[in-house]
Structures are given as structure tokens and as C-alpha cells.
Design goal:
Elements lengths: L4 E7 L4 E9 L3 E4 L3 E9 L2 E5 L2 E5 L4 E4 L5 E5 L5 E9 H12 L5 E3 L3 E2 L2 H15 L6 H17 E3 L9 H13 L6 H8 L3 H12 L3 H18 L4 H7 L5 H12 L3 H6 L10 E4 L1
Antiparallel strand pairs: 1-2, 1-13, 2-9, 3-8, 4-7, 4-9, 5-6, 5-8, 7-11, 10-12
């Protein structure tokens, strides 16, 4: 069986994270990110769930998740999975969209799963440039062409990609975001939202695609990523984001991100000669 390898690079110039997972079998539970994910499958097959729709993804599949899109995937068959992708923060995407369209608005896309040879070509070229530490302007040019092509082919307003939510659910989300670093009880969320437990669970899951507890976990992991990028040690990041202990934190972080917290932190402090942050395992 192919040996598993995971490489992560942070490009300071483009302000994006590049991921390369080869030979992996790890499943990823239902979750969401607060950034865009654009990637493509190099090899293998997986069953993907995105916004409560089921997909079979395989070699040549392009994946595109907006901030907030819930998704999960598991291995299909006995093989392994090879994947390359980018994580682009909303702030960076705003800058890119403004360059491409002249409007400072987050772009939305009509598809989460697609097959498009032109876009796949741009993705591969850009990913190779970032992984190899290219520093010339061709790297930025390729990124702008990629985003421009995506918007031209699949673009729509970001707001139209976000499902409408009842005010009660938004109040529940606000409470979770405000108190994620504390121990939260379901009773507290229900009182703040003004809903019974059963109604909250049904309405929340229908609206957000995840349960309230999974939403809390995801908020904690996303906040922990920010702390780790700022140099905070994993044990402190665990305490500051509400995890009961570092072991609990490490297990959850690895399940959602595919790396241990310390390994993720290291990519921002192990600089290669070209200035990109890199981690391999």
C-alpha cells in the first residue's frame, strides 16, 4: 500500500494555504470552514456529502466549498486518496474578487463538485508553483486567472449560496460564537434562542447542515487554527478554545484538519529558503 504523505505550505505572498495529501485513508467528519476550499482529486475514490447532497468523487473531480458549506467524506473501496487543494481566507478572496470584478464582494459558485479541464489545469499549475516556492509574478497571475475563470463559469452572489436562517437559529449561532471558550449546555442555547431542545436540534441541523455541538466544535477548531498561526502553543490553544484537555483537542484537530496541532503550528515557523512555510509528514 502507498505510504501516506501530507504536505502543507503557507504562501506569504498569496496568503493562501496549499495542501497535498497522498495515500491517505482518513475519513473527515461532517464539518465546515470559515474560508474557501478549492481542490482537485489526483487519485482514488471517495463518498462526499456536501450540504446534505451525496457525491462520488474520483480522479479529475474539482471541489469548491464556500465558507460555511458543511461537508464530510469517507474512503470508497480499498484504495487510498490523493488530493491537492487551497484554503483561501475570506479577506484574501475579497481582494482577489475585487481585482477580477472591480467589486469588493465575496463570490459565490453554483457548484460544489465539478469536472472542468481548464480549471483543473490552472489548479495544478498554481499548486505546483506554491509547493515549489516560486517567487515570480507568474504565481499571482495564475491565481487571478483561476479565480476569474471560476467566477466566469460558475459565479453568483455569495449570499445566494447561504441558506436563509430563522432568527432563532442565528441567535443560537451568536451565543455559541460568544461562549465557545466556555463549557456550554444545550439548555443555555435553547433559552437564548427561544426554542425547545427538539425544535432547536431539528431546525439548526436543517439550516446549518450540522448539529449545534458540531457547530461548536468547528468554531473551536477554527479559532485554534488562528491561535496556532500566531505562535500559541497547542496546550494553551486547547485551553483558550474550550477543550477539556490537550489530548481531546489533538484528536479533534486531527480529525477535522488532517494534521496534529503542533504540526500545523510548525508550518508558520519552519521557513524554507524562499519564505514559504512548509510542513511534511
Amino acid at each position: 500500500m502507498k505510504k501516506e504523505r501530507r504536505t502543507v505550505v503557507y504562501d506569504d505572498e498569496l496568503q493562501i494555504e496549499a495542501y497535498h495529501f497522498a495515500g491517505t485513508r482518513q475519513p473527515f467528519p461532517n464539518h465546515f470552514h470559515e474560508y474557501y476550499v478549492i481542490g482537485f482529486v489526483e487519485d482514488g475514490e471517495r463518498c462526499l456529502s456536501c450540504k446534505n447532497k451525496e457525491y462520488k468523487i474520483e480522479k479529475g473531480t474539482i471541489l469548491l466549498f464556500h465558507p460555511g458549506d458543511n461537508h464530510a467524506c469517507v474512503q470508497s473501496g480499498d484504495g487510498t486518496f490523493d488530493y491537492r487543494g487551497f484554503h483561501i481566507a475570506k479577506s484574501a478572496m475579497l481582494d482577489l474578487a475585487e481585482e477580477v470584478t472591480g467589486k469588493r464582494e465575496l463570490p459565490g459558485f453554483s457548484e460544489n463538485v465539478m469536472y472542468d479541464d481548464e480549471i483543473a489545469c490552472y489548479l495544478r499549475q498554481l499548486h505546483e508553483m506554491v509547493m515549489n516556492g516560486n517567487s515570480d509574478f507568474g504565481k499571482e497571475e495564475n491565481l487571478l486567472i483561476l479565480i476569474s475563470t471560476l467566477i466566469q463559469h460558475y459565479g453568483q452572489l455569495f449570499e445566494s449560496c447561504v441558506p436563509e436562517c430563522r432568527q432563532e437559529i442565528e441567535r443560537a449561532c451568536a451565543f455559541i460564537r460568544e461562549h465557545f471558550h466556555e463549557r456550554i449546555y444545550l439548555d443555555q442555547i435553547c433559552r437564548y434562542a427561544g426554542l425547545s431542545k427538539s425544535t432547536l436540534l431539528r431546525a439548526f441541523t436543517k439550516s446549518k447542515g450540522v448539529t449545534p455541538y458540531r457547530y461548536l466544535e468547528t468554531i473551536r477548531i477554527n479559532e485554534a487554527k488562528t491561535l496556532l498561526r500566531d505562535g500559541v502553543q497547542p496546550v494553551e490553544a486547547a485551553m483558550r478554545t474550550g477543550f477539556s484537555d490537550q489530548s481531546h483537542f489533538t484528536n479533534y484537530f486531527n480529525r477535522f484538519i488532517g494534521l496534529a496541532p503542533g504540526a500545523y503550528r510548525d508550518i508558520f515557523f519552519d521557513k524554507n529558503k524562499d519564505g514559504e512555510a512548509r510542513h511534511e509528514e
